[in-house]
Amino acid sequence: MNKILQIYKLLYNEYGPQGWWPLIAYKNGKLTTKYHPSDFSYPKDTDQRFEISIGAILTQNTAWKNVEKALINLKKQELLNCKGIIEIKEEELKNQIRPSGYYNQKAERLKIFARWFSSLNHKPKREELLALKGIGPETADSILLYAYKIPSFVVDAYTKRILYGLKIIDKDSTYDEVKHLFEQNLPQDFRLYQEYHALLVEHAKRFYLKKKQDKEDFIKVSQK
DNA sequence: TTCCAGGCAATAC
DNA sequence: GTATTGCATGGA
Question: How far apart are CA A77 and CA A24, in angstroms?
């Protein structure tokens, strides 16, 4: 029995398809975050791959709601694309992304990423992404998985918290150790990876607000 | 008011 | 190599 796969099925049955990565789109007249559950045809073009990558950088240690504000600011001015980020002045970029926090460093990182992206003519490799200032393991894996459909499992603080709660990993497990644990116990399917990471985030968000009894129940079920 | 969110780089030891 | 610290807004 594969515990990793078992947890996935449990989460999927509980929460259903999550439709990550969200894109900014119009919904009855105004721009908002839009998910597309059970539709793996996204991203549809280069601009959407770029948008996902920018979102991955902006959401570092930041609530998505704040990132959404920043992305909408850019989208409204047709700046949510590689050319737009390259051409906008850095000081003005800081203003536009202010709601997402850490706006000084994030503006620099967006600029660096956009310049690199503009000359990209192949699917990026993990090492290339990690070499860019401002892109660490989680951001790199998010870009590979959600922008390029490459089955590279994304680990975040929630993932570790949940697995540590289940006593499947140690508290001091490294990023790569946890990543490999998932990758060695799952078929190499980008759809499964995309869904699984999103489900872990969704579960952690709800679950850590809920009462402790619910936590105990979840642990029991998943250890069967 | 305090705490923290879909991390990362720089610095300290 | 591992531990700590700065970065910043907005919502609970």
Answer: 13
